Amino acid sequence: MAFSNERDEVAHLVKFWSSTVKIKKYLFFITEGRDKSTKCLQYGSRTLASFLVTRNPKVAAKFAALTGTASDGRKIFRLGKFLNEYVKVKAILIAFLRSRCKSAKLPWDECHKTQLLQLISRFGFLCYWVLDNLLLLSKIKFLGFDTKKLAKLCGVFWLIGLLGSLATEARTLRRVQDDEQNHLDTLERDDTREHGANLEIRAKEAARTLRELQQEKRAASLNLIKNAADLVVASNLAHLPHKIFGHPLPEGTVGTAGFISGAISCYQLYD
C-alpha cells in the first residue's frame, strides 16, 4: 500500500495552531493551557454553586453564571481543535493499516489491539470536537442546530473517546508494570552472576530504566484518573444517569469530577 509523502497541510496548520510559548523554563501550550485552566474555573465554580445554592443563593447564582461563561469561553478556545484529532486519527490509521498489511495472515498482536483502541478513542474525540464546534456556532445563532441534541451527542462521542482512552491507558499500565517486574527479576538474577565494574554499570543502567518505567507508569495512572473523572461528566452530558437513575448526577459530583480532571491536565502540561 502506497502512502503519499507530500506535506500534510492539515498537520502543518495544526502545528501553527498549537504553537508554544516559553514561560521561564517551562513550555506551556497556549491553547491547551488556557483550556484546562479555564476548565478548573468552570467546574470549580459549578461545584461552589452547587454547595452554596441553599446557603447563599445570590453568590451561588454568580458562580453559576461564571460556570456558563467559562464553558462558552472554552468552546471558543477549542474552535478548530478537531483538526488536531484529524491528524492523530490519520497517523494512527496509517500505522495500523501498514502493520496489518505486513502481517495480514498473522493473528492480531498487542500492538494491533492497542492501535485499534487508540483509533476508536481518537475517532470519538474527533466527532466530539466537531460537534462541540457546531454547538458553539448554534449557541451564538450562527447555525440553527438544536443545542440540546448537539450537547447530548457531544456527551455520547466524548464517552466513546474516553472509554477507548481508558482501555488504552489500562493496557499501557499493565505493560509497564510487567516490564518493571521483568526488569527487576532480570536485575536480581544478574546480581548473583556479575561483580565489580560490570555490576556498577548494570546498576546505573537499571536505575535509569526503572526511572523511565516509573515515569511512564505515573503518566498512565494520572491519565486513568483523569479519564475516569471526565467519564462522570461525559456520562451526565450523554444523559446516561437520566436513563439509569431517572435523574442527572448531582451538580456537586459533576463539578468535582470535572475539576479533578482539569487539575490533573494542568499539572501534566506544566510538569
Which descriptors would you attach to this protein?
two-stranded antiparallel ribbon; mainly alpha; membrane; peroxisome biogenesis; 271 residues; single chain
Q: Would you give an account of this structure?
A:
- One of its GO terms (biological process) is peroxisome fission.
- This is Peroxisomal biogenesis factor 11 domain-containing protein.
- Residues 196-223 form a coiled coil.
- By secondary structure, this protein is an all-alpha fold.
- The chain has helices at 9-17, 30-52, 57-77, 82-102, 110-139, 147-191, 197-237, 240-245, 251-270, and strands spanning 20-23, 26-29.
- It has nine helices and two strands, in the order αββαααααααα.
- Strands 1-2 form a two-stranded antiparallel ribbon.
- Helix 2 (30-52) runs antiparallel to helix 9 (251-270), helix 5 (110-139) packs antiparallel against helix 6 and helix 7 (197-237) runs antiparallel to helix 9.
- The longest helix has 45 residues, at 147-191.
Topology:
Blueprint: H1 9-17, E1 20-23, E2 26-29, H2 30-52, H3 57-77, H4 82-102, H5 110-139, H6 147-191, H7 197-237, H8 240-245, H9 251-270
Antiparallel strand pairs: 1-2
Helix pairs in contact: 1-4, 2-3, 2-9, 4-5, 5-6, 6-7, 7-9
